[in-house]
Design brief:
This is 30S ribosomal protein THX. It is built from two helices and no strands. The protein is mainly α. The model has no long low-confidence stretch (mean pLDDT about 85).
């Protein structure tokens, strides 16, 4: 278990890959309604 292990978090970081052990950060998307309201007010 370490940098060479493809299934560990440390191995994912070393291999620059993602998976169950190292999920990507989830971006919150703003709803379309909010975008329309922001543009309409200014």
């Amino acid at each position: 278990m370490g940098k060479g292990d493809k299934k560990s978090k440390r191995g994912k970081i070393a291999n620059k890959s993602y998976g169950v052990r190292r999920p990507r950060k989830i971006r919150k998307r703003t709803p379309v309604e909010e975008k329309i309201n922001i543009k309409g007010k200014s």
